[in-house]
TrEMBL record:
Its main location: cytoplasm. SUPFAM superfamilies: UROD/MetE-like. It comes from the Bacteria. Pathway: Porphyrin-containing compound metabolism; protoporphyrin-IX biosynthesis; coproporphyrinogen-III from 5-aminolevulinate: step 4/4. This is Uroporphyrinogen decarboxylase. Substrate binds at R26, Q27, A28, G29, R30, D76, Y153, T208, H326. The gene is hemE. The record marks D76 as: Transition state stabilizer.
Length: 358
């Protein structure tokens, strides 16, 4: 099926576009009243994820409100550990938790290695349903958590402020940590390839907790496993390249290493300046980001000013996908997203007026 809007894929390939494409991390979610209504009907978060029709409905909701250039699968980064038998559940106000933790070599050995198309078939049904309903309107992004990020939740049993248990394993039992990360890298590769076969046209790996590591630990325990995944992904499907985006929150200091690990694009949070990032990686990869989500709490004039500043920081030419530096807050006024998208549509075309570049 022909894509009616391929700006996002063209930007990831560093090809000429008429304006900077945009999508938002967590664009389908709690800041939208229509999402909250469907979530209430589903009963709970994971029931919503497992219902292909409702997952499709909430994936498409932000596209009905805003002129976005991509849809992202509605799911959760913790579906793989859930399929491994750890018992994922959500505590109100506390985020995801697991009934079982993984803190020993025996715990790692006991893990069930999921087969994505069998054990996570509800995700693939959602992907294929969304692709059908999109009908070529915009590309669909699939995603997964990185091995290190998944391991963090699995070892800690949920979110953490000090990462005490997972770093204790990393430094005290590195062989056990590598065994866990190797299992997860194979599972993520299988999971993302299954999403691509089901219809995902680009994929993003979310390394939410990579930025908590020292430089040597990041390279050994996070980036090396993402590099392994990238090398194992389907990169051509349905006659098009399937681009891969790597996003390490607080990872700007390792930008060159991340860019060298094989992705098409590197996602950046707001702590890395785009002009600096572009100077450092040159033409190697596209860059995605990086509006601080809290800017959306400001007035529309301030939002517009910050959008303009970020566009100016990246500068002219191809290779920029506009996004937030992390997920949109549930407390964001949907009208402020209008101000953001409108400003981008108005201000970005002048950065793409030069002759098409390859």
């Amino acid at each position: 099926m022909e894509l009616k809007n391929d700006r996002f894929l063209r930007a990831l390939a560093r090809q000429h576009v008429d304006r900077t494409p945009v999508w938002m991390m967590r664009q389908a979610g709690r800041y939208l009243p229509e999402y909250r209504e469907v979530r209430g009907q589903a009963g709970d978060f994971m029931s919503l994820c497992r219902d292909a029709d409702r997952a499709c409905e909430v994936t498409l909701q932000p596209l009905e409100r805003y002129a976005l250039d991509a849809a992202i699968l509605f799911s959760d980064i913790l579906t793989i550990p859930d399929a491994m038998g750890l018992g994922l559940y959500f505590e109100t106000g506390e985020g995801p938790k697991f009934r079982k933790t993984v803190r020993s070599e025996a715990d790692v050995a006991a893990l069930h290695q999921p087969v994505a198309e069998r054990d996570l078939d509800y995700v693939m049904r959602a992907v294929s349903t969304i692709r059908r309903e999109l009908n070529g309107r915009v590309p669909l992004i699939g995603f997964s958590g990185s091995p290190w990020t998944l391991a963090t939740y699995m070892v800690e049993g949920g979110s953490s402020k000090d990462f005490r248990h997972v770093k204790s394993m990393l430094y005290g039992s590195p062989d056990t940590m590598h065994q866990l990360l190797d299992i997860l890298a194979h599972s993520v590769t299988d999971y993302l390839n299954a999403q691509i076969r089901a219809g995902a046209q680009a994929v993003q790996i979310f390394d939410t907790w990579g930025g908590t590591l020292s430089t040597p630990a990041y390279r050994e325990f996070s980036l090396s496993y993402m590099e392994q995944i990238v090398a194992g992904l389907i990169r051509e499907h349905e006659g098009r390249r399937v681009p891969v985006i790597l996003f390490t929150k607080n990872g700007g200091q390792w930008l060159e290493d991340i860019a060298g690990s094989g992705p098409d694009a590197v996602g950046l949070d707001w702590t890395t300046e785009l002009s600096d990032a572009r100077a450092r990686v040159g033409h190697k990869v596209a860059l995605q980001g990086n509006l601080d989500p809290n800017v959306l709490f400001a007035n529309p004039a301030a939002i517009r000013a910050e959008v303009g500043r970020i566009l100016d920081s990246y500068g002219e030419g191809p290779g920029h996908v506009f996004n937030l530096g992390h997920g949109i807050s549930q407390f964001t006024d949907p009208g402020h997203v209008d101000a953001f998208i409108d400003a981008l549509h108005e201000l970005s075309p002048r950065y793409h007026n030069q002759i098409a570049m390859g």
